[in-house]
Amino acid sequence: MTFTDSDHRYMALALSLGRRGMGRVWPNPAVGCVLVRDGRIVGRGWTQDGGRPHAEVVALAQAGDSAQGATAYVTLEPCAHTGKTGPCCDALIAAGVSRVVVALGDPDKRVAGEGLRRLQAAGIAVETGLCEAQAAHDHQGFLLNRTEGRPMVTLKLASSFDGRIATATGESQWITGPEARHHVHAMRARHDAVLVGGGTARADDPSLTVRGLGDVPQPVRVVCSSRLTLPTQSKLFATARDVPVWLCHGPNPKPQNVEAWTEAGAELIEVPVIPGGQLNPGLVLQSLAERGITRVFSEGGGTMAASLLQAGLVDHLVGFTAGLAIGAEGTPSIGAMGLDELPEATRFRLHELRQIGADVMHHWVRS
Questions:
Q1: What is the mean pLDDT of residues 148-160?
Q2: Which residue of 108, 318, 325, 341 is 20 to 30 Å from 292, comparing CA positions?
Q3: Local structure of 246: helix, strand or coil
Q4: Dihedral sign computed on CA atoms, order 93, 99, 101, 104
Q5: Element (H, E) at 74
Q6: What is the predicted pLDDT for the residue at 203?
Q7: Residues at the annotated binding site for substrate?
Q8: Dihedral angle, C-alpha 186, 188, 191, 195, nearest 10 °
Q9: In whole numbers, what is the pLDDT of the chain averaged over residues?
Q10: Residue 182, exposed/middle/buried by CB under 10 A (0-12, 13-18, 19+)?
Q11: Is there a catalytic annotation at residue 77?
Q12: Pairing between β-strand 331-332 and β-strand 164-166 as defined by DSSP bridges
């Protein structure tokens, strides 16, 4: 199928609009939509905070009567099921669009081609596959949620030149500069949940919130602690009713810990453990996916990083490297993984490399 340069430009715009919903629309996908009639954009939309209204509905409302005879560029197949709102494919049909260009099909069993079939049955020209690779990249979290029952995982590591995240005494603030830290907050904002291990929660007393970007939706804060031994004199405990805190724990935590965190407003999620007593990382992610999470930003610590990498669950690896060396006595950014041979290690390919302030950011994606 041949697409024109104009088709590519309009779909690129739809993709850029859809990205505005990343981290804000779960459990729904962050879709973008552009309506064009006689070479003029008459409507633009992206999925709104909380997942509704959908991108197509927003664009159609903006276009009004101008949607009649227009072409709709949509980054994901229009939905065909009725939830809290009606099907987007029916809304496009009712508006009288004449052509729909879709970047990527929706694997959700409630859609899975039905949206396209309804459009075609209504006499609308339907074309698919424009900017498909970019759309698959943007919708990766939603696609993994629907096809593999887990969210997309971004593992972020901020370390010294020699791969350390703290000195021998535990000092870690701050290895990277303020520009890198601001960028990390922007990355948090584009994910549904922030994930850390219990060791990091105990050592750093982190807030795990998005700061410095104005009034934005906050990601769910997830902590993995197999025995639920987390301090109640902490920022997470004090703010659990303000910003969601989900605690993944193993079987039989102390009742007083369960009671304290439950009363504080946290949601507790029991997850089976693997030999050694750690939580099963795959089942942690499955539990998050079942609750609608599509994009997870893991920020530590070394044990959590090793666990996710060892299980082959990291999709994006983002490093912020600072120009200082701490030495072998410092804390390594990734814990022991038990690898004996190089082929056992997951390979990533470089996606982006750039300087941020005085530090270097390198973004890798799983090969």
A1: 96
A2: 318
A3: strand
A4: positive
A5: strand 71-74
A6: 86
A7: 172, 188, 208, 211, 299
A8: 170
A9: 94
A10: middle
A11: no
A12: antiparallel
